[in-house]
């Protein structure tokens, strides 16, 4: 057995030396016995020698300088490491990245319409901390159809309430395709998703990249997402265009309009599509010049305060002909969300729906710090939004959607129990298309033709084969949800609550979610704030309908509500006043920048246009 030091010292140049030896030996071999093999060996040895010489001369990789030729094996193994782990090492229920093999398998099975039943019992550790289940009933129900649906934007047979209400409510499935743009997905992927949505009578969210011709070809229901770049409804300077919006929003295929405030996988982060990737088709869908950088600012320019946002929603409803308008967000600063709710109360303008995107949501590309540590997970965000709307008496007027690692019927049931009216899934439907979780979405080299604009790669995705799989995944997942509801003695997902879900705390204790995540009483935030959870008691006074920044309570507010000053138990935190003062304290002077290094990965930072572009007449809408 060789000592590791001997190997490290003497094996470094072995491959290079063997290549030289092979070239030397092949010369007399060719002279003595002319033929193909000596020539092939000589040419191969010369090629390896050239690689070795280059390796020893280059300065970028120390491994190649120390281990010429042989060092390339390290980079090759590193390159195929995810596939080796996924195919040969990863267990069925081992924590996947981000989905386990068992989760992916159930999507593939349901998409293909093959049996998804499992023999020999669960592989999960039912005694593990965090394990959850649904309590069943001794009197199961019988449900006629798996096609559970809800009205968004009010019911056709009920009076409209509020300012500028929706007049064209949408009859929606409780399970729909989450926002994924053309450009992030290939043309064939968009075609297959929309045809599948058409076949299954559910909705397809366009993502913020605009409505492409591939979204329209099969006529599936669309939820048109509008981001800060206003793609498909923008002026040449990037500002919002009411005329272009109305032109597209009044199309019968567009069923709802969704304003994207933030995305779970990278909330608060803008984006830029390099000009080289802005093809003629992408430029047409987004309304931007072909071949030029396409910027998505980190914030909207059409509104700058919560109240202006409400007037913007009312204006979009009018321009769309009365269709449901809502917004999507990942919960961040709580006072900003509360400020939006206060703006609803002040203006009597409410969105028809809110989609809560969790920090565990997917994206084609996000900085690692954003993907791992920015934004609230869907459980906390959904619970906060649901409770807040109940606490101010607006829950009946607003439907709530939820997104974030929704794959199975239990994922759906859990979201409904936490307060969602429907769920969206992006990666689930991508896997129905054949996604293998290669995680190269940002490179353009997707092996299944889903997240690429390479015309050769995307041809591997056959629309006529994949669209039925999208429809089957949707139908089979809802069929599984129907069976869960029947076993629990229920008739519709809207009957699920936190009383139905049980969580294991440790080996000896379990709790209902209703005990861990209680629901507030109707209008309790408005009528009995001092007795609510600290989240509401401390942060509600900080919220301002006319500013997203935290609001420092005035002396009059302190006199009216002295509870704002009361410290919490243990002094954490002292009071809403102290929180506001801490959040709004001035920044200390800092030295000026001195580094001249420009980060190679950085692009021009996309920023929103200063101020608000909301016309003055919108405030009276």
Automatic annotation (TrEMBL):
Q: Could you tell me the Gene Ontology terms of the biological process aspect for this record?
A: glutamate biosynthetic process
Region: Disordered; residue ranges are 584-621
GO MF, one example: glutamate synthase activity
Outline the extent of the Glutamate synthase domain.
173-490
Q: Which residues cross the membrane?
A: 12-30, 36-56
**Polar residues compositional bias: what residue ranges?**
602-621
Pfam families registered for this protein in UniProt: Glu_synthase
Work out whether the entry's keyword set contains Calcium: no
Keyword entries, A-Z: Membrane, Transmembrane, Transmembrane helix
Family per similarity comment: Belongs to the glutamate synthase family.
Protein name, UniProt field:
FMN-binding glutamate synthase family protein
């Amino acid at each position: 057995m060789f000592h590791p030091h001997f190997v490290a010292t003497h094996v470094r140049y072995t491959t290079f030396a063997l290549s030289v030896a092979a070239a030397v030996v092949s010369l007399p071999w060719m002279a003595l016995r002319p033929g193909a093999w000596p020539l092939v060996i000589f040419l191969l040895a010369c090629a390896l020698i050239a690689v070795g010489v280059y390796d020893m001369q280059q300065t970028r990789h120390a491994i190649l300088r120390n281990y010429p030729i042989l060092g390339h094996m390290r980079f090759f193994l590193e390159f195929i490491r995810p596939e080796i782990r996924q195919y040969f090492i990863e267990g069925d229920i081992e924590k996947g990245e981000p989905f386990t093999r068992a989760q992916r398998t159930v999507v593939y099975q349901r998409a293909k319409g093959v049996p998804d039943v499992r023999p020999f019992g669960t592989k999960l550790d039912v005694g593990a901390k965090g394990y959850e289940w649904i309590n069943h009933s001794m009197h199961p129900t019988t449900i006629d159809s798996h096609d559970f649906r809800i009205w968004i934007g009010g019911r056709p047979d009920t009076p409209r309430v509020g300012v500028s209400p929706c007049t064209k409510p949408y009859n929606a499935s409780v399970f729909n395709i989450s926002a994924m743009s053309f450009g992030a997905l290939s043309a064939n992927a968009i075609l297959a998703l929309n045809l599948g949505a058409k076949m299954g009578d559910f909705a397809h969210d366009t993502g913020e990249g605009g409505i492409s011709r591939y979204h329209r070809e099969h006529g599936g229901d669309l939820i048109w997402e509008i981001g800060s770049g206003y793609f498909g409804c923008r002026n040449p300077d990037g500002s919002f265009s009411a005329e272009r919006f109305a032109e597209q929003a009044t199309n019968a295929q567009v069923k709802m309009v969704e304003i994207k405030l933030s995305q779970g996988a990278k909330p608060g982060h803008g984006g830029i599509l390099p000009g080289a990737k802005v093809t003629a088709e992408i430029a047409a869908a987004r309304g931007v010049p072909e071949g030029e950088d396409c910027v998505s600012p980190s914030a909207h320019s059409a509104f700058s305060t919560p109240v202006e946002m409400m007037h913007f929603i009312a204006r979009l409803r009018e321009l769309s002909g009365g269709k449901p308008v809502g917004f999507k967000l990942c919960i961040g600063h709580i006072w900003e969300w509360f400020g939006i709710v206060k703006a609803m109360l002040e203006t009597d303008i409410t969105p028809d729906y809110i989609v809560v995107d969790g920090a565990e949501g997917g994206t084609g590309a996000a900085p690692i710090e954003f993907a791992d540590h920015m934004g609230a997970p869907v459980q906390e965000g959904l619970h906060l939004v649901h409770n807040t709307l109940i606490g101010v008496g607006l829950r009946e007027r607003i439907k709530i959607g939820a997104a974030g690692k929704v794959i199975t019927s239990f994922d759906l049931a859990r979201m409904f129990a936490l307060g969602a009216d429907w769920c969206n899934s992006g990666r689930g439907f991508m896997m129905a298309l054949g996604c293998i979780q290669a995680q190269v979405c940002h490179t353009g080299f997707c092996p299944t033709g889903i997240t690429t604009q390479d015309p050769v790669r995307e041809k591997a995705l056959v629309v006529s084969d994949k669209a039925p799989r999208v429809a089957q995944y949707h139908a089979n997942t809802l069929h599984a949800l129907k069976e869960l509801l029947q076993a629990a003695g229920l008739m519709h997902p809207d009957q699920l609550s936190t009383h139905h879900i049980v969580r294991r705390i440790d080996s000896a204790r379990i709790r209902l979610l209703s005990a861990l995540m209680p629901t507030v009483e109707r209008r309790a935030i408005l009528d009995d704030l001092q007795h609510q959870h600290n989240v509401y008691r401390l942060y509600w006074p900080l919220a301002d309908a006319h500013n997203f920044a935290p609001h420092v309570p005035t002396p009059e507010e302190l006199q009216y509500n002295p509870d704002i000053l009361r410290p919490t138990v243990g002094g954490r935190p002292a009071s809403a006043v102290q929180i506001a003062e801490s959040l709004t304290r001035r920044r200390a002077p800092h030295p000026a920048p001195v580094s001249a290094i420009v980060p190679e990965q950085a692009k021009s930072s996309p920023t929103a246009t200063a101020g608000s572009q909301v016309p003055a007449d919108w405030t009276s809408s």
